[in-house]
Design brief:
Strand 8 and strand 9 form a beta hairpin. 26% of the residues lie in helices and 32% in strands. The radius of gyration is 20 Å and the shape is elongated. The chain contains three helices and nine strands. By secondary structure, the protein is α/β, with parallel strands linked by helices. Strands 1, 2, 3, 4, 5, 6, 7, 8 and 9 form a nine-stranded mixed sheet that branches.
């Protein structure tokens, strides 16, 4: 993971599902975060829009799990998020399922402060957006507009476990098929 300025913010988010596979997250507000900083909503988005990656937990060494479309709305930095299909990148599918089921509810912006005054960050360049388990901004909580907020039941956990087990079984089966086909090629007369 590439080290970043210690003022890299991890802000929690709210989201709503817009269309099939697209979620809207609030990624940044000017609320005082747990570090004690205030990030003014004065963002340079130009470079980010050329490569709008969605990461998991700010891990720059791993493949992106999706892409985003950032925009300002009501003084907040928001993102429309689309995850990589699970058939292409199973980990991205797992993260999306955890978002869908309410096990992961937060995002965090990775950024470079461009202008600061003490603990007030006046202007920033957005570098990336990450889905994260632990947010820094305690007031930026999840909103599930149009999806209905409900408690998580044991059946939700069972469903998540079955989905994960099915994906593992599928991957193992594919591996064995590939290994068997490679053995068959070795058995052919030369």
């Amino acid at each position: 993971m590439v080290p970043m300025d210690k003022r890299q913010m991890r802000l929690s988010a709210s989201f709503e599902k817009k269309a099939a596979g697209v979620y809207t997250f609030t990624g940044s507000t000017d609320t005082v975060d747990r570090v004690g900083d205030v990030v003014e909503q004065n963002w340079d988005l130009d470079n980010y829009k050329k490569n709008p990656v969605l990461l998991y937990a700010h891990d720059y060494s791993q493949l992106p799990i999706g892409r985003t479309n950032p925009y300002m709305d009501g003084g907040k930095l928001k993102f429309d998020v689309e995850f990589v299909p699970k058939e292409i990148y199973p980990f991205a599918g797992t993260v999306e399922a955890m978002v869908e089921l309410g096990f992961l509810n937060a995002v965090s912006v990775g950024f470079k402060p461009l202008d600061m005054d003490g603990t007030r960050i006046k202007r920033s360049e957005l570098l990336e957006l990450s889905i994260v388990p632990i947010p820094a901004n305690a007031e930026a909580l999840i909103e599930r507009k149009g999806m209905g907020m409900r408690p998580i039941y044991r059946t939700d956990l069972d469903y998540a476990a079955k989905m994960t087990a099915a994906r593992i079984d599928e991957a193992v089966s594919e591996w064995f098929k590939k290994a068997d086909s490679e053995e068959d090629m070795d058995d052919e007369p030369k």
